[in-house]
Amino acid sequence: MTNKFARLLAPILCLTALFCVVALLEVFAALGSSPGDQHTDFDAALKAAEANRATTRGFLYDAAFTMKAASWLGPALYTCSRNLSRLDARPVIMLVRVNPEGKADEVLARPLTRVARCLRPRILSAIHPKPPDPSWWIKLEVKIR
Fold first, then answer.
1. Half-sphere exposure for 52 (CA within 13 Å, toward CB)
2. pTM (2 d.p.)
3. pLDDT, tens digit, for every residue of 98-124?
């Protein structure tokens, strides 16, 4: 009877241990998250970026952001787009949440192509113009030709 009980209990103990390991990994991942990790819903961020762009201040900020990014974005895009598959050459919408100091706090992308994954850390490390309001969303449309 004891041997039968042990055989029944073993899978339950394994699943419990596996669950604990996964839970701990998620806790450590959350503690180790850095600026730029995706937390905001893409659709909500897109709506905010489009609403920002529709204002005069947003239009002017978009122009300032683009002018400042021109020096590093072109070379970065060239580097990130070499030897692409057809799937990775699709257009990408990147949303950047800029904090009051001009640093990107979040960068969201859809679809998450190789180009988007390559550009993300570059956007996070760049210094951007200070936005009109804190936590300002901006929309970048990346097209590979």
1. 26
2. 0.72
3. 999 999 999 999 999 999 999 999 999
